[in-house]
Specification:
Layout lengths: L3 H11 L6 H11 L5 E2 H11 L5 H13 L3 E5 L5 E5 L7 E5 L5 E4 L2 H13 L10 E4 L2 H5 L1
Parallel strand pairs: 4-6
Antiparallel strand pairs: 1-3, 2-3, 4-5
Keywords: Cytoplasm, DNA-binding, Iron, Metal-binding, Repressor, Transcription, Transcription regulation, Zinc
Subunit structure: Homodimer.
Main location: cytoplasm
Amino acid sequence: MFSPQHAFLEYLSKNNMAATEQRRVVLEVFLGTDGHHSCEELYMQVCKQDPTISPATVYRTVKLLAESGIAESLDFGDGVTRFECRYNKQHHDHLVCVRCNMKIEVVEERIEDLQESLAQKHGFTLNRHKMILYGICARCRDA
């Protein structure tokens, strides 16, 4: 299986885009961060590696990462688009606390099976999906 770096280079080449050093830095920083990050948060990390890279370059590169299938955009309902690496990662869904904004990644096979069954019932073949459940975590509920 190809590395995410190789997949990104292939995507850029296929779309007649340059594989610049700045894009490589953004990719490496993105791959080196776990969790869900906004472009602004990634920019702050990228600046530590190369302060000459602009916020616009980070934003455009993250958009390319999403288009290439390496990153996935997520909206947790707070008005900020975040990204997480999806390359070679197990699918998971999210629980989000609406008070403290804590995010928990969850995998539940029964839900996955139900979603697949629902899609088949309506003649769909699933390629991907996102499920985000919003509520109040135990810590906030008990506070």
